[in-house]
């Protein structure tokens, strides 16, 4: 099927003119999340029934704190990209769609930074 | 921009449930559920950083019956979204589009997610019992 001109094919732009970066960013985050999530679930199972001090010690261990912050950043990045696609598919009122997308992005990064700060506070004993 | 009287494609409830589209919409729903559920992880970490009292409150809420039901639902959503996500990566590579193959992997993904989620909770309760 050669409906596209050589110029368009070379530039790699479809009708939407963009979207490949979004698609790719979501998948790169997804691949990174596979080991992070498996590590997190195993780590969390180890803390079931543990008291405040031992959970604090686990979260505060340098390797765990670093991986937790990476998990939070990657997870919320992936989540806001995914929610954007859902809004784009189902919300047909333009201003509401745009508002939902950007409010979700702001909220995602607020939550990621807030939770990461909590991890740092535990790790560094502020 | 909504034009009048344009033909609409049938909505989901018109279609017979099939092993192609049902897992597909479940994949999206599980992703949305996890996005909302991520609030609990943020709350739990902030409670931990806030001190023993706040952490005890968080543990009490998450450990209550309703808390456990929500957490089990999130475990199921996580397992399904993880396995389904790996399936999507195969599709992105152009593999597994043959309908019988897609249906077989759909069934394996659903079954695998349920088995994995139950297994995680069995191990978690075993760890709790040993603690």
Short synopsis of the structure:
The complex is a heterodimer of chains A (126) and B (131). With 126 residues, chain A is an all-alpha fold.
Model description:
- The complex is a heterodimer of chains A (126) and B (131).
- Chain A is mostly helical.
- Chain A has one domain (6-124): 3 helical TM bundles of succinate and fumarate reductases, CATH 1.20.1300.
- Chain A is built from 5 helices and no strands.
- Chain A has helices at residues 6-11, 20-46, 52-60, 62-90, 94-124.
- Chain B is extended and about 60 Å long.
- The relative contact order of chain B is 0.11.
- Chain B has 131 residues and is mainly α.
- The mean pLDDT of chain B is 92.
- Chain B has helices at residues 21-50, 52-63, 65-92, 99-130.
- The interface between A and B is medium-sized, with 33 and 31 residues.
Roughly how many Å is the radius of gyration of chain A? Answer: 20 Å
**Cα-atom Rg of chain B, whole angstroms?**
19 Å
Gross morphology of chain B is extended
For the terminal residues of chain A, how far apart are their CA atoms? 62 Å
Biggest chain pair interface = A-B, 33 and 31 residues
Distance between the termini of chain B: 60 Å
Number of separate domains of chain B:
1
Number of domains of chain A: 1
Secondary structure topology:
The complex is a heterodimer of chains A (126) and B (131).
Chain A: H1 6-11, H2 20-46, H3 52-60, H4 62-90, H5 94-124
Helix pairs in contact in A: 2-4, 3-5, 4-5
Chain B: H1 21-50, H2 52-63, H3 65-92, H4 99-130
Helix pairs in contact in B: 1-2, 1-3, 3-4
Which descriptors would you attach to this protein?
heterodimer; A: 126 residues; mainly alpha; 3 helical TM bundles of succinate and fumarate reductases; 81% helix; elongated; B: 131 residues; 4 helices
């Amino acid at each position: 099927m050669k409906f596209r001109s050589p110029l368009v094919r070379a530039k790699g732009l479809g009708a939407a003119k963009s979207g490949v970066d979004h698609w790719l960013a979501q998948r790169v985050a997804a691949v990174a999340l596979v080991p992070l999530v498996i590590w997190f679930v195993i780590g969390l199972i180890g803390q079931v029934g543990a008291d405040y001090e031992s959970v604090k010690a686990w979260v505060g261990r340098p390797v765990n704190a670093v991986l937790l912050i990476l998990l939070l950043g990657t997870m919320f990045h992936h989540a806001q990209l995914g929610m954007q696609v859902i809004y784009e598919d189902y919300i047909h009122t333009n201003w509401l769609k745009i508002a939902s997308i950007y409010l979700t992005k702001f909220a995602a990064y607020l939550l990621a930074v807030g939770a990461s700060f909590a991890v740092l506070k535990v790790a560094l004993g502020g | 921009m909504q034009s009048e009287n344009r033909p609409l494609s049938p909505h989901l409830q018109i279609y017979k449930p099939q092993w192609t589209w049902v897992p597909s919409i479940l994949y999206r729903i599980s992703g949305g559920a996890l996005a909302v559920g991520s609030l609990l992880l943020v709350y739990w970490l902030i409670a931990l950083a806030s001190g023993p009292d706040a952490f005890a409150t968080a543990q009490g809420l998450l450990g209550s019956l309703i808390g456990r039901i929500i957490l089990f639902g999130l475990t199921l959503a996580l397992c399904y979204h993880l396995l389904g996500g790996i399936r999507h990566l195969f599709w992105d590579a152009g593999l597994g589009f043959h309908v019988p193959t897609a249906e077989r992997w759909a069934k394996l993904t659903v079954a695998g997610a349920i088995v994995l989620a139950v297994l995680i909770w069995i191990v978690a309760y075993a760890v709790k019992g040993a603690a």
